[in-house]
Amino acid sequence: MVPIPLTDHIRRRNFWAFTLLLIVTNFWAFFIELSMGRHLDRFIMQNALIPAHYAGGSLFTHPLRLTVPPIFISMFLHGGWLHLLGNMLFLFVFGRSIEDRFGHFQFLLLYLISGVAAAVVQIIVSPGSRVPTIGASGAIAGVLGAYFICFPAARITTLIPLFIFFWTIQLPAILLLGYWFLIQFIAGFQMLSIQTATAGGVAWWAHIGGFTCGVVLALIMPPQHSGPVVETA
Questions:
Q1: pLDDT tens, 129-152?
Q2: What pLDDT score was predicted for residue 53?
Q3: Where are the beta strands (DSSP E) in the chain?
């Protein structure tokens, strides 16, 4: 059973312009992927994060080619509609209130730094992997980590699927996001014992790295609004 967050109930003071911009940018990048046809595989291999490229001194012989383009471009690439829509839903639900809390530019900074931190953790944990890593989930995990710190008691309307039945409940963010992080942590440690240089799957440790980075940034970044959280019905 995987809970699916639908919305939070925080009354925001400003419009979530950068959250919307990031969502639009991710969709735009995905439509570019769809238009590439048979050239898509080559494009992914050139622009995805591949941890093995950072081993054996490659990081120092081609620093710009290996650090700037793959880490940042890979944040906006996705492996399919389900991958994209799932990530954008989480960004929509949690990004709006974090953007309101820290302001547009600090929110964007948190998002990008968390994405870089996620990539670095993935490289450290899987230094020999040649599997391309793509997706915004590492950066979005940073937004989740920040939300965990800033709005632990916020109510999240959550869809609970069970076989063919669906119902919605309101869960506190600390419970929902704590459960999400626990799943990443358990799966990440399980993958450590079975991963190979060619095995694919979810980049669990990128999620852990991004979430942890978001927690740290939320603790040190000055909020744009420091008043009490106001929830809507």
A1: 888 889 999 999 999 999 999 999
A2: 79
A3: 4-8, 155-162, 165-172
pLDDT tens column, 188-197: 877 766 655 4
Contact criterion met (CB below 8 Å) for 127 and 42: no
Residue 155 phi/psi, 5-degree rounding, is -85, 130
49 pairs with which residues across the strands?
Answer: 133
Query: For residue 2, what are the CA distances in angstroms to 88, 141, 160?
Result: 16, 16, 7
Residues 6+ apart with CB under 8 A from 23: 88, 91, 92
pLDDT digits (tens, 9 = 90+) for 47-104: 888 888 776 544 445 544 445 577 889 999 999 999 999 999 999 999 999 999 999 9
Query: Cβ of 47: how many Cβ atoms within 10 Å?
Result: 17
Rounded Cα distance between 54 and 48, Å, is: 13
> What pLDDT, on the 0 to 100 scale, is given for residue 193?
62
Q: What is the CATH number assigned to the segment(s) 4-220?
A: 1.20.1540.10
Q: What are phi and psi of 51, to 5 degrees?
A: -55, -35
Residue 171 has φ and ψ, to the nearest 5°, of: -115, 145
Q: How far is CA 29 from CA 40, 52, 98, 108, 126, in A?
A: 12, 25, 23, 18, 26
Alpha carbons 196 and 200: distance in angstroms, whole number: 9
